[in-house]
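> run fold Lipoprotein
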Amino acid sequence: MRPRWWIPLLLVLLTGCSSPQRAVRLDTGRGSPLLFTPRSSAQPAELNEDDFEQAMEALTRAVRPSSRPQQAARLLFETEPRSGSYLYNPRTRRVTPLGPSEHLESDPLATEVELTRTYLRWCERTNKPGDCLHLLMENPTVTGDGRYALAMALAQGAVLDEMMDAYKDMVDPQAMMSAVLWTWTTYMILLAVPEPFSKGVAAVMTATLIAYVGVDTFWSIIVGFKRLVEEAERATTFDELRKAGGRYGKVMGRNAARAFALLATAAIGNTATGLATKVPKFPGAAQAAVQAESQMGIRLATVGAVETVTVSAETVTIALAPGAVAMAANSGSSSAAKARPTGDRAWGSFSGFKKAMGSAGPGKEWHHLVEQTPSNVKQFGSHALHNTENIVSLDKGIHTRISSLYSSIQRDITGSATLTVRQWLNTQSYKAQREFGLLAIEKVTKGFW
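> ok
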């Protein structure tokens, strides 16, 4: 049975989705939305294999995969099961729903049965016998959403291997893999056909993903998935499905696939707030924080304040919770709101922050963008320093290099031959110190400083 629900999606494909330049609209619920033009120099947050596997291993300790992962993913994103049949005309690229007594000209069951047999043989060849991706829990053959999930698995083969390495100490690694794959696929289905927007956990995932890959890459991923859906529906053999997946894998790229996998894993069985608290501990979070401001005009630490995200051909509209602080934006540049941020959560001491937030992650350390120097504490107050907007997780090596930079005299940066960077920073406003802190992370990470 083919899903009638996909009729709107395939019709959307006919109109095209490209746009020369996309904007982000920030709706704070106060006055007109802010229009933000992302900077074209976006650099994706880098996720290397070791950091990715360590983070996945840490995340999975808190996850209990469901025995019915497809159903669990639907509950997470509040979507309904879909069913139905349609006739596809490749010449006109139109789909026509079939009535209860109508049938396709060719027997779809024969095609689906053969595809299912090939899928099971593929599982056997990869040393995971049986229904290794849990595609047959709700249908006896690989059809409907199962086709998209299988195509996604074929698209991200290298990343799936890395995920299995991270799951090697679990009792049932394959159950964890299926849970992540179905969460990933169901989220993409939700993005491909907004209803008309993503909300809750999906909204937090969307904002975080944009912070990691940038608006343009994010849009390419959506367009690529829509094409994957069309190709998966038309595929009559496993090999055709594999080729479609391979094409999509090239569109997404390994770095974006790792970011997707992290988000999908952290989202399983979670709430929007719970997911948002995990994001600052992800590898690459410091670089993603820089991108969140340059691409969306929001701070990554407050991603939990994102209530809904609507995606159109030209604009991504982000609606923030009442009281959330957005960044002003005009002509592609941004500046912080006048009020000093106190974060989604703030504490009166660094020890209080660490007690609540826990470890920064394997090989990571917590880093203050605006340092907790005595003069800063006196001038701005403890809560302005010890909060989820000002403290980010950094690799220990990067943290050490930034600390050394702050302790050194850098005349080309400060214009002073006597003041250290830290002493010079202490003369600056909170806004200036924070912007320098984000810049320092970017420059040190890339080896420029």
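The two ends are 58 Å apart (CA to CA).
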